[in-house]
Amino acid sequence: MASREEITVCEDEVRSRYSHLEKMTDLVAVWEVALSDGVHKIEFEHGTTSGKRVVYVDGKEEIRKEWMFKLVGKETFTVGAAKTKATINIDAVSGFAYEYTLEINGKSLKKYMENRSKTTNTWVLSLGGTDYRVVLEKDTMDVWCNGQKMETAGEFVEDGTETHFSVGDHSCCIKAVSSGKRKEGIIHTLIVDDREIPEVVE
Asked: What pTM did the predictor assign?
């Protein structure tokens, strides 16, 4: 049974973590965007009487505009370590109804994520009680782990290439092997401590 003090501390933590939510009376949209350095949460407030616009990325205020006479338009900002360009489009649907769409690098979120699944591989694994999200950017062969770009060493092997890096005291290797089929191209496999990790689809 948790003591009263522990419960108070937990409540305070929750309150401080969600304190910006209490103020978000005009919250109209929330998106989750999976990038190489992690999954980012974008929240958007739109006051349809005052024209107020507020954009939060991972709980941090990025844009705040009070008293805007034009209720439609767009807000552009960046997300994540690589400063990926994001734009929220505000369009009037009818009367006082509005539609909010998020674009990442000029593509709709859906298109961007579909394209991303072709250009990246993502693995999620747990090592020693810690969760890790490993992302390979196939075009650059950059490897990201929990928001950090990893130091890697690549080598050619008999059936393809291997990209080596370490997570804590665990040795990791991404093997790239040709599938032999033109449509499939190259198959990337993550091996951690001689164990193959299944890929996840975000």
From this structure: 0.78
